[in-house]
Design goal:
The chain is of the alpha/beta class and 257 residues long. The chain has one domain (10-196, 224-249): NAD(P)-binding Rossmann-like Domain (Rossmann fold, 3-Layer(aba) Sandwich), CATH 3.40.50.720. It is 45% helix and 15% strand. It has helices at 19-30, 42-51, 69-83, 106-134, 160-180, 198-205, 207-214, 225-236; strands at 10-14, 34-39, 59-63, 88-91, 138-143, 185-192, 247-250. The chain has a seven-stranded parallel beta sheet, sandwiched between helices. The protein starts with 9 loop residues before the first strand and ends in a 7-residue tail after the last strand. The structure holds nicotinamide-adenine-dinucleotide. Nicotinamide-adenine-dinucleotide binds next to helix 1, helix 4 and helix 6.
Length: 257
Amino acid sequence: MNEMKLAGKVAIVTGAGSGNGRAIALRYLQEGASVVIADMNLAGAEETIALAKESGSRALAVKADVTSEAEVEQMVAEAIRHFGGVDILVNNAGIVAFTPFLDLSEAEWDKVHNVNLKAPFLCSQAVAREMIKRGQGGRIINITSVEAHVVVSSSGSCQPHYNSSKGGLHMLTKAIALELAPMGITVNSVAPGVVETPFTAQGLKNPDIRKWVLDRVPVGRIAQPDDIANAVVFLSQDESEYITGSTIFVDGGWTIA
Ligand SMILES: NC(=O)c1ccc[n+]([C@@H]2O[C@H](COP(=O)([O-])OP(=O)(O)OC[C@H]3O[C@@H](n4cnc5c(N)ncnc54)[C@H](O)[C@@H]3O)[C@@H](O)[C@H]2O)c1
């Protein structure tokens, strides 16, 4: 049997009640970690644990809206109470919205930035403070998007607020990585292309959109959540300690051309 890559580690995965976050949490459990499955949708978090079968005994579902500083502090406190500390944080919770720039309201702008950018700030700060107190270093992994780097616009759809929130998270990753490097905490991002999750399900049901996406993916298939989880597990291992401030594109080659 292969040795487990994350035996004894404690991870918090936000938005782990669905899609990419669920796949990351399940891979972490398979690799021997204890995992806080944090989501504002508690039923989704509990479903993730049920899917983990026996290794679900190392998982804890926590209901948290990660845009709230108080709920983030409670989530981190729960992780420490149950598992004794936090080694890994994955800022995965995110939302998407399609509205052209000229029609975009202040409320929608704020909502998208609160989840996609403010929440990773709050979670990273709360977790990093605990990692520093504990003195064992750590890993912070931010799920950004190819849309932090290029504007993707199928059938003329627009998401300027999504682009700016993910672009902001890309640079936040680098800024935090620089500050936390001396404490042994690495901070990296994983930038997916289009992944088959509930987030994209509606759009991908449309054969024209599916074809439009496939035409842009040199490897010739749409990503599955496990593709994202594989990159996240790689960055989470002790062996990745010299990688910080980096981005792994998991986009099947989308951003090459
Ligand atoms: N699916 C894709 O094609 C794709 C592509 C690039 C990047 N991403 C990124 O991957 C991440 C996960 O996306 P997904 O496709 O799995 O989406 P998803 O909608 O399937 O899952 C997102 C989860 O986040 C949770 N969530 C949302 N807001 C929250 C909040 N305020 N507090 C706590 N939990 C919250 C939701 O309840 C849900 O369980 C997002 O950051 C997204 O931007 C997805």
